[in-house]
Design goal:
- The structure is a single chain.
- The chain contains 6 helices and 13 strands.
- By secondary structure, it is of the alpha+beta class.
- The termini are far apart.
Length: 306
């Protein structure tokens, strides 16, 4: 396993700082069992009045996984119903919809303040052999040759107030290295495609359940933002309101989130104040390990005054 503390293009923090962020993320993935099929999770402050969608997605998947044995998740479909409150715990209620010989189905409802904020349906499968094919990985530069997203935004991050800095630091447990980075200070219309290398900033012990859970967490980054690229929209400038509406994911092969993965995203359509984005996730060996799709609310407005 590669040493995460060695100097590489774009490295910005000491190994201890990175490990603290990883430990904080893993603590979020430790749900408290309240009763049979009932779990409680806490939230991470990212400087906004709402819970990060990837966190709720990952915790709901983890709650479902707690009720399944000897089967790995192969697909999930989720809806974000209300913004989560980061100052209150989230209760996850799991419905054991079906236990078949090959497939297991679960439905999870996330509840806060007595109201549903999120629903998830997930399917698990026993290991089985079969015919195989996949799209090839895009021909992109290796992650070692690229600069981290935080390094590219270092000046903007350093000048931000503490609350906004926590928002920039939402990437903390993961390192992202975009193949091509838009200029956040002067966005220009771009093709609705982007490729980003990413990995967890530390070694991860655990089975596929944990790796796939954290892959679901990180899959919420960059995805629907791809739909903003043709329109030169900049979220931090206040001229667009972007929020996830749903999230779908298919897990094709075993994966390790503590090694480099390539997220290849595109956006085939936007309209009706919504943007659609799709993603393919490859490992370093070029294996397609997961696919994603997401639609988000994308409301354009007049930018706020400085």
């Amino acid at each position: 396993m590669t040493d995460r503390t060695q100097d590489t293009p774009g490295s910005t923090a000491a190994g201890g700082d990175k490990q603290a962020l990883v430990d904080e993320l893993l603590a979020l993935m430790t749900l408290e069992p309240l009763e049979v099929n009932l779990f409680r999770g806490e939230s991470r402050d990212i400087g906004t009045p709402r819970v990060f969608g990837g966190q709720v997605l990952a915790q709901a998947l983890l709650a479902a996984s707690r009720t399944v044995e000897d089967r790995a998740v192969h697909s999930l479909h989720a809806y974000f119903l209300r913004a989560g409150d980061p100052d209150a715990p989230i209760v996850y209620s799991v419905d054991r919809s079906r236990d078949g010989r090959s497939f297991t189905a679960r439905r999870v409802v996330a509840i806060q303040h007595g109201r549903q904020i999120f629903t998830l349906a997930a399917s698990f499968q026993v290991p089985q052999a079969g015919v195989t094919h996949q799209f090839p990985m895009p021909d992109v530069p290796a992650p070692e040759t690229l600069t981290s997203e935080r390094e590219l935004n270092r000046e903007q991050w350093a000048k931000a107030p503490p609350k906004l800095r926590r928002w920039f630091n939402r990437f903390g447990p993961f390192e992202f290295r975009p193949v091509k980075m838009p200029d956040p200070a002067n966005p220009q219309p771009m093709e609705p495609r982007q490729q980003v290398w990413f990995r967890l900033c530390g070694e991860l012990q655990g089975d596929q359940s944990l790796h796939r859970t954290l892959l679901a967490y990180v899959s919420d980054f960059h995805l629907v933002g791809t739909a903003t690229l043709p329109h030169a929209l900049a979220i931090h400038k206040g001229n667009v309101l972007l929020a996830s509406l749903d999230h779908a994911m298919w897990f094709h092969r075993d994966v390790r989130v503590d090694d480099w993965l390539l997220y290849a995203c595109d956006s085939p359509n936007s309209g009706g104040s919504r943007g659609l984005a799709r993603g393919l996730i490859y490992d370093r060996a070029g294996r397609l390990v997961a696919s994603t799709a997401q639609e988000g609310m994308m409301r354009v407005m007049e930018p706020e005054a400085d």
